[in-house]
Amino acid sequence: MRTFDDAGIFAGHTVLVRSDLNVPMDNGTITDRGRILASAGTIRDLAEAGGKVIVMSHLGRPKGTPDPQYSLAPIAPELATAIGRDVAFAADTVGEDAQSKAAGLENGQVLLLENLRFNPGETSKDESERREFAAQLAALADDFVSDGFGVVHRKQASVYDIAALLPHYAGSLVRAEVEVSDRLLNDPKPPFTVVLGGSKVSDKLGVIDNLIDRADNLLIGGGMVFTFLAALGHDIGSSLLESDRIDDVKGYLDRAEAGGARIVLPTDIVMAASFAADAEHWVRPVTALEDTPAGPDGLGLDIGEETAQTYAEIIRSSATVFWNGPMGVFEFPAFAAGTKAVAQALTTDAGTEAAQRLTVVGGGDSAAAVRSLGFADDDFGHISTGGGASLEYLEGKTLPGLETLA
Question: DSSP readout, 271-337?
């Protein structure tokens, strides 16, 4: 992978930077600035070195045409604050406004293009259509810097195809993400604990498969845990279940027994009468989840306090920890305790040798959870900006956006 170690090589050059500014929005208001802050370093370094910086990103999932609710216009002032300098905004991606403003850039100035996915060529499955859009983007600049780790697992015009058209480099964020991921895969300091949550076990099977023989502990929570509990014969009420994955889960439990990582499952669960923030709820052992007033209609929305304490102890005693996926429905305060306990155990001031630990929050919902629960990014060793990309890297897959930087 080609990286740049001296931003000064871009002085006087127009540099296209593919960032990931796909932040959560609520009626036009940014609710989590994490990806903007993570992207700021490379953009700031290039601008301070005298580059003419054109930033491109997507936001949400528009259908290949302009859609005001997905405009990047609200991102420009936030990015300006993060990098400490003005950020101009182009009302299109490769049209007249983008071309005019790109041509008018002076050394050290920064321009943000409108949402890449307003153009159908960005995500097209047609290679020629993607390459045509990539060529239009490349015509704006002299060099390309890939710094959107959250999209490197996508074969898209601004991620993959454009690298064939311009001198290309990995930005500092992508480089940092790859270095951390490589440590997790190839050189984790033991004990190595992997904490997996979220709603679907199917989303995590690849990670389990690739890490079960590398990790010491696999701690399971979130909605995915109920497929494990069902595989062991427990009644789970109306909790989330992927019945078609039970055989897969049994296979991993067998591998663990045969010498793989120790798979640790909850001993108690917070069961609720319904999926609602104010739902009546009860803590029950996993052997009696239906023993509530809701009976078989009850559903699990968090790990219980006993489980949270057990998981926290294992995490604090581990030298390397990777966490992806909340332990419960953290958006509801009544069901956030398990996620908060895991997050607290991962913080850099936890454990007996905090300075020696590597704790990684694997992006996506996990990153949103720690911020919404009041934790700061620097409370952890590393917070990834790429949920899906991070998982695919740890699955051992080849990521197109990294392959093209070779």
Answer: EESSSSTT--EEEEEGGGTT-STTGGG-EEEEE-HHHHHHHHHHHHT-SEEEEES-SS-TTSGGG-H
